Amino acid sequence: MNIKIPKTFAGKPIKGAIKRVLAKSEKTNKTPKNENKNSDINIQSIDDYWQIQGVNYMNEIKTINLAQQLLPNMTQDKHAEYREQAISKGEFYTGDMPLYHAVFTALFNQKDKPESEQARQFIKKSMREKWLMTLTRIAYQPRGKDKIIHNYNTKDEYSLEEDIIGEDRFIQNEDRFTLKALLGTDNIQEIKDIYNWINGTDTYIWRINSKPNKVDERITRFDAVSDRADLDCDWDPAYRDPSLGVCVMREAHSQKN
Amino acid sequence: MAKGIYKNSTEVVNVNGVSIYMKDIVDACLKTRLNLFLQGDTGNGKTQLAEDARSYFGDKSMFILGRNDMDTRDLFQQINLEKFRTANSSAELKELTDKVNYHLIVVDELPNCVPAVRAQLFNLFDGFVEINGKAYPIGKGYSVGIATGNIGQKFTESSNELGRALKDRMHVIIDVDYFSPKASNTLEILAEDTNPRVKFSENSKDLSNKIIKEHKELVSKEVPFEKLILANYLIHGLDYCNKGSKRKMKDAWPTQLDNHEQGSDVGLVLPVSVRAAKSILRLSQALDETARKKGISQKQIEKNYFNSVMQAYKLCSAYSGILNEADVQNKFDNDRYKALDSIISSTKTQYDSQLNNICAGFEMAQLGKRNEKVFNLFTKRWGFMKDIFEGIIKNKEQEKKKEIKTNEKNK
After folding, report:
1. For labeling, which of A237, B120, B230, B299 is most exposed (least CB within 10 Å)?
2. Does residue B8 sit within a domain?
3. Which sign does the torsion angle of CA A80, A82, A85, A88 carry?
């Protein structure tokens, strides 16, 4: 059968497409030499995930794959177990709060790209429809600072101490130390801008409001409704939720401060 | 088409901003000659909807009430009952032949029939009737079937078996309960009268010729190239998994998929069959036509073929057996349409990100020159595109060879 190829496909001209695509692809494949935040970042959609380059996570520049489908509903403990197996197989797994925030930041920093917009829409939809589990757990302490455990129960686990307890509210400057411990940054305006870009709203933090009588462990999740994007820091570890699947591909180089 | 008695202003799908209602879907199925199964609980209007459709065809349609005690012979005798009383045996045969020319067969409560009767009814839906071992085509080139009933486990003891047969014969299966009429519709229905029976249209205008004409026009229209590629994605792209092919995995799908695939659309849906893809394309053409008649410009339709193909996919696939039932139950509250919306959403992301590459691939195919860099743009679920480009290039090469040979002969 003789197939007649039209001049346009889905409104895009076919003539000149090879040149355009290959030029873009060559640009993407070039390794950036300088370490400027914005020149390092890039995003491309590959099969069923986005590959985001130049993600600044724990002061290192990483390439992170973000799956276009959520990981299944599991408790945080199960997500942690799953992560250990997934890493060994090179599959998608659940990240901690700072990792997700770093991914959102990298997307925000290249928000004009169509792939970033697609990823944003996916994250927004997921946050609005589900509670997105993270591997950050908070052990609220009866005395002293609270304990924030990132990559909970995995070989990459690390912990910080900071005051998380406080009133539930839209984030403000007073929350900067709390947010630094949770998200890895105390740039309140940037945090607000990022979640405003994702959900079109301000950012709200939910947490334990007063000191518990004994250590009270809670899980953290991202979610959103029409009037706020939530940083949930007070949820029971027994809950089962899906998560954004991520996979750290490689370390490009360290971020020089 | 005629207004009908059934009332329902609940949107079934939206095509380029235009609401498509249940009646539009029935009309679309008639125009495309796609068999329609209206699935749902009793008393929600599915029989009325089917009867409205039957009334379009005047006396060139038949309404059959599915019964457990009905067998094939009885069915045809029932159809000829009046003639049997007055005619001799040859007239009896003639009457039977006349009915062979009917265009629409409506079977109410089809799951109530015993399997042997169902098999005969399915033959009618396939477009032929078997009499004394001989198959006669029905409808003079245009025949279509509408059936109603409930295929839920509690209503039929052999729902699985019936389900398979239905999926084979009924191109579009719609859950009428899911798109039940709005309160404003039921208020109108109740205010009109309190007769709970299905209203059979009397002296309705015979629209057979109009429908058949519209059908011919619609199916003779060339299917846009973009739609063909989208249909191929549904056949081949959705077949992809890390293990190679979901089809080849057979019963090992989805349990033996790689872990992360089980949480994605790879584990949620199987690819469509070629037959289903044909139904999807036809229905999408009809949905575009309906949208056009409701005021959308041709340009707007051409800009978004993706939309009509995916809406048709949703209508043809919800009950076609391609969804992972466990996932639909656990992740989508047993809502098949919600599960399909999620698949469509991820397909849209996939498609948009691949559009430029597809254009490059077609430019390469048009030029007839293989470009490894372009081929490499198509991996995993888009890998099927390589075969399409290769096929076009090979055709071009053969054409070129023929041309050279002809030129040589002419010299």
Report:
1. B299
2. no
3. negative
Please state the ipTM of this predicted complex: 0.86
Residues B378, B240, single domain; the answer is: yes
Is B225 within the bounds of a domain?
no
Q: Is the pLDDT of residue A104 over 70?
A: yes
User: How close, in Å, is residue B83 to chain A by CA atoms?
Assistant: 50
A-chain residues within 8 Å CB-CB of B366? Answer: 5, 14
Across the interface, whether the CB atoms of A18 and B363 are under 8 A apart is answered: yes
Task: Using CB atoms, pick whichever of A44, A48, A72 lies closest to residue B262.
Answer: A72
Is B224 within the bounds of a domain? no
Counting one residue from chain A and one from chain B, the pairs whose CB atoms sit within 8 A come to 120
Q: Between chains, do A10 and B305 touch, taking CB under 8 Å as contact?
A: yes
pTM over 0.90: no
Question: Which one of B357, B363, B370, B385 would you mutate to disrupt binding with A, by most A Cβ within 10 Å of its Cβ?
Answer: B363
CB B350 to CB A14 under 8 A?
no
For residues B347 and B268, is the Cβ–Cβ distance under 8 A?
A: no
CB contact under 8 Å between B371 and A18, yes or no, is yes
Q: Nearest-CA neighbor of A21 among B380, B390, B378?
A: B378
Test the B interface: residue of A24, A48, A84, A116 with most B CBs within 10 Å? A48
- Are residues B197 and B280 part of one domain? no
Q: Decide if A5 and B381 are in contact by the 8 Å CB cutoff.
A: no
CA–CA distances in Å: residue B332 to residues A39, A73, B262, B329, B347: 40, 12, 15, 6, 17
Are A16 and B363 an interchain contact pair (Cβ–Cβ within 8 Å)? yes
What are the beta bridge partners of residue B18? B15
Where in the sequence is the domain holding B352, given as residue range(s)? 230-410
Does A68 contact B226 at a Cβ distance shorter than 8 Å?
A: no
The CA R_g of chain A, rounded to the nearest whole Å, is: 20
HEC per residue, B331-398: HCCCCHHHHHHHHHHHHHHHHHHHHHHHHHHHHHHHHCCCCHHHHCCCCHHHCHHHHHHHHHHHHHHH
- What are B270-295's pLDDT values in tens digits? 999 999 999 999 999 999 999 999 99
Tell whether B249 and B157 lie within a shared domain: no
Of B346, B360, B395, the CB nearest to A18: B360
Cβ proximity of A7 and A15 under 8 Å: yes
Q: Does residue B163 share a domain with residue B140?
A: yes
**Do B212 and B277 belong together in one domain?**
no
pLDDT at B378: 92
Residues B240 and B376 in one domain: yes
